Every structure is written in C-alpha cells, then in structure tokens.
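Hi, here's the filled form for the chain we discussed.

Project: internal
Contact: R.S.
Residues: 115
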Amino acid sequence: MGNTIHQYGSGDNIAGDKVMGNKINTQINNSQDLTQAAKDIKTLLTQLENDYDPTTPVGQTMMTAKLVESVDNNPTLKARVINALKEGGSTALEEAIDHPVVKPVVAALKGFMDA
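And the returned structure, exactly as it came back:
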C-alpha cells in the first residue's frame, strides 16, 4: 500500500527529509559550457594518448602542455573553458572530464582565468 510519512513541527517535508528554511546539498548545475568544454577536453586528451603515455609523469606533462596550447589556440574553446570554470568550478570540470590526467590539465587551464 502507500507510504505514510509523519511530520512533526514546522517545515516542508520533502521525500521524508524535513526542510527548515533553505537546505541545499551539493548540487552541480551542468551548464552547457561545462558539458561541452568537458567533452572537447576529453576528446583532445584521447587524441593525445596516441602520442603520449598518460601513466608516466613525462607523458602527463606533455599531454597537459599540448592540451593547454590547443585550448589557447581555439578562442571558442578557451571562452567555454573559462565560463565552465567560473560557473561550475574546477571540481565539477574534473568530474565531468574523468581522465587520469585531468587534475594537472584543469590546474593549468585555471591559468586562463587570470589572463
């Protein structure tokens, strides 16, 4: 039969979790820039794996350098990356890319925000 939810006190009851005032858990709003930037960066990283080994420090460094160079030479992607970092932050971008070299890449891409 149906579930009965008992609520005591004030506040709205949502899915069995009493909400008092504003309750915001971790929420990542995947913007179009974040989604597209992650997709484009993942594609570039996959292409770079043909030339560099992502499991070695030298390979990771080269992949990061080449990727940053590619983004810097593509004004549309560069703007998209900057917007993605501003809107979602570096953690959201890292999670969206999901690649072994993502942390140094995103750290390097954050430099575009200061330029």
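Let me know if anything looks off before we file it.
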